[in-house]
Amino acid sequence: MQIDVLFFASYRDLAGAERRSVTLPDGATAADLVARVRSLDDDLARLPEAAAVVVNHHVVRSDHAIAPSDEVALLPPVAGG
Amino acid sequence: MQIDVLFFASYRDLAGAERRSVTLPDGATAADLVARVRSLDDDLARLPEAAAVVVNHHVVRSDHAIAPSDEVALLPPVAGG
Amino acid sequence: MSATVAMARIIDAPIHPEPLLDAVAADGHGAALLFLGTVRDHADGRPVSGMRYEAYVEMAEKVMDEIAREAAGRLEAGAVAVVHRIGTLDLREASVGIAVATPHRAPAYEVNRWIIEEIKKRLPVWKHEHYADGDAAWVEGTPLEADA
Amino acid sequence: MSATVAMARIIDAPIHPEPLLDAVAADGHGAALLFLGTVRDHADGRPVSGMRYEAYVEMAEKVMDEIAREAAGRLEAGAVAVVHRIGTLDLREASVGIAVATPHRAPAYEVNRWIIEEIKKRLPVWKHEHYADGDAAWVEGTPLEADA
Question: CATH code at A32?
Answer without folding.
Answer: 3.10.20.30
